[in-house]
UniProtKB/TrEMBL annotation:
This is Aminotransferase. The lineage of its organism: Bacteria, Bacillati, Bacillota, Bacilli, Bacillales. The keyword Cytoplasm does not apply. Coiled coil: none annotated. It comes from the Bacteria.
């Protein structure tokens, strides 16, 4: 018999494991660790959403829904996206409810990529982007953003990365891991290049609700962009629903139909109780979203100021719940910094290098932790730096 490993597909064999998980596994073996590593809210899903899921089970709603999701939920999503972000989508044709934004990204890639097609990926970025492009047979062409530019994609850098094989740009604002939010003008400059080269944009707007100083602008709302955008969003972050695994994708009819074909064969539909919870969250949960946002804003302000005072300089991130301070003054690599901080002071952060180009010299800290935990983390990081 061949070796068991030789049965693994080459595309999977060559895939690097997530650098984030490595740190979680190490932290999990230690006691008393403050984790600023995880990218998820510390809040519990609002009670009304939880209750709606319970009620749906009590009523016996335990079967599949339509492949694209409950029509009622898609209608609520359509209203939500058009009222908050000014992009109209037809519930019955242009929206698919997915298993998290993660599945939506996968669907988008598989629906548009032929072998060898290129996708421009802006780094530092969410760890799944490059592997998902490659799994779909595409080639990820990475463009670096830098701390000096506040990790904002420059239109001229985007233009330089475009080749005749480029099919799409994958863009995330507000961003994981940097927290950078692009304003309307910056998005417009990017949209102009996208239109000039006739590309699609896959817009990952999962942090749209978590924008603290400036209301989120969806790139799909800019003139001429709706027809060339696959808009990805979901309930995990803004609505504190990571474990429910519920997201959605909105796209022009032909693209939505292509994604739906893949979705119906691979997933059938998203979880039924989770869809009822999400419907309730959209109908009655916006106040909870606002309250969580206020708490994140307070924590962000405290944490950014504390890090800057310690000499770990960072820009003020406009959104998400991450800060991305520079650790270059310590002379350590981001991996050394994260490892030593964990071992010596029991604070878990993620080395910036795991997020790709431009990430080395930085660490990602999530401030989705209680104020007390953040204060303790600040104390420990200070101690670490004093050593
Ligand atoms: N996109 C970005 C930028 C993320 O940071 C995450 C989660 O960390 C996701 C997508 C996945 O979200 P979901 O839980 O909805 O799959």
């Amino acid at each position: 018999m061949k070796t068991t490993k030789s049965y693994v597909a080459k595309s999977v064999e060559n895939m690097a494991p997530s650098g984030i998980r490595k740190f979680f596994d190490l932290a999990a073996t230690m006691e008393g660790v403050i984790s600023l590593g995880v990218g998820e809210p510390d809040f519990v899903t609002s009670w009304s959403a939880r209750e709606a899921a319970i009620l749906s089970l009590e009523k016996g709603y335990t079967s599949y829904t339509a492949n694209a999701g409950l029509l009622e939920l898609r209608e609520a999503i359509s209203d939500y996206i058009s009222e908050r972000f000014y992009v109209p989508y037809i519930a019955n044709e242009e929206i698919i409810v997915t298993v998290g934004a993660s599945q939506a990204i996968d669907l988008a890639m598989r629906a548009i990529l032929d072998p060898g097609d290129e996708v421009v990926v802006v780094e530092p970025c969410f760890v799944s982007y490059v592997p998902l492009v490659e799994l779909a047979g595409g080639k990820a062409v990475t463009v670096e953003t830098t701390g000096e530019q506040g990790f904002k994609l420059q239109a001229e850098d985007l233009e330089k990365a475009i080749t005749p094989k480029t099919k799409a740009l994958l863009l995330c604002s507000p961003n994981n891991p940097t927290g950078t939010q692009l304003d309307r003008e910056e998005l417009q400059a990017i949209a102009d290049i996208v239109k000039k080269y006739d590309l699609l944009v896959i817009a990952d707007e999962i942090y749209a609700e978590l924008a603290y100083d400036l209301r989120h602008t969806s790139i799909a709302s800019l003139e001429g962009m709706r027809e060339r955008t696959i808009l990805i969003n979901g309930f995990s972050k803004g609505f504190a629903m990571t474990g429910w695994r519920l997201g959605f994708v909105c796209a022009p009819r032909e693209l939505a139909a292509a994604m739906l074909k893949i979705h119906q064969y691979t997933m059938m539909c998203a979880s039924t109780p989770a869809q009822y919870a999400a419907l309730e969250a959209l109908q009655t949960g916006m106040n909870d979203v606002e309250e969580m946002k206020k708490a994140y804003r307070r924590r962000r302000n405290y944490f950014v100021q504390s890090l800057n005072e310690m000499g770990l300089t960072c820009h003020v991130p406009g959104g998400a719940f991450y800060v991305f301070p520079s650790i270059q003054s310590t002379g350590l690599t981001s991996e050394q910094f994260a490892e030593q901080l964990l071992v010596e002071e029991k604070v878990a952060v993620v080395p910036g290098s795991v997020f790709g180009k431009g990430g080395e010299g930085y660490i990602r800290c999530s401030y989705a932790s209680s104020m007390e935990q953040l204060q303790e983390a600040v104390k420990r990081i200070k101690q670490f730096l004093e050593k």
